[in-house]
Amino acid sequence: MFSLFRSSVRPLFFLGLFCFWLPAQSQTEQTPAYISDALVVYLHSGPGNQYRIIGTLAAGSSVMRLSEENGYAQIQYDENKTGWLPKENLTFTPGLSAQLSELQATFTEQSTKLAELEQANSLLQTDLNRITLERDQAQQELQQLSRSNERLTTELDKTEASFWQQPMVLGGAILFFGLIFGLLLPKLIPQRRNSERWM
Fold it and tell me: Is the full-model pTM beyond 0.70?
């Protein structure tokens, strides 16, 4: 019976020791925290309001939680200073002032990006207007060249037609072909007659 009692007490002892060790371990871990949105929080030299006040912290201040005891949290601030405050004045999410600072920084960054995009858009719009103007000018020049080409083609056709319709040109062409025919024909015919005589 005693051995049964001893075998059951030993696991309970280790279980209880583990349960006490776990909260103590969690309370000594350093955790980033913030002062809640109270206007001013008084810091005490120990875990209770009976300890003397050693300073104050403004709402939203970033601190490091070291441990907890009797409803008070020990914090580290200003790099190496420590103090105690009621743990309900401690939060693990940034306060309104910290969020406001982050929002202002984000707003400034987005405003800068927006200004850069607007400037880039303005430059692109200027380039687009210039390219559109150059395209319109090129189309106008192409239309003018097309009209000039049509006019010159028409004038050339008229010039060729009127050239052959002139009497002197027509008579000269007939005379030229007649002269060539008259010079070539006698040379061809006698050669045939001479070749027949030798036979």
Answer: no
